[in-house]
Amino acid sequence: xxxxFFTNAVAIKSCAIIEEAHLRCYIESSNQKCGSVDxxxxxxxxxxxxxxxxxxxxESIKNIRFDYKDEILVFTFSNNKSMSFNCGIYExxxxxxxxxxxxxxxxxxxxxxxxxxx
Length: 118
Prior knowledge:
By secondary structure, this protein is mostly beta strands.
């Protein structure tokens, strides 16, 4: 998968529940902290910056396709650009749980079909 936003490998290193509807995933590149991805209810807020890495923005869960395979989590946006992260199963399960809980806020469940296929 081509990463449209980053040239370096980027990883979700850990996740923490900040509040009931707020999951924060901490991002690293080359073993350096470079930001976070915050899942806040039905929105995702990207705040990532570092050497040769920069992306800030917010998007609704319903407008992003999610794919997870071989410990790689890929976010594909409506403009077909994608953002991929190395992501362990523990972190993926936290993200998956949050998306399952908030994916239907104003959206169609069909948009998430590829994310939850076995």
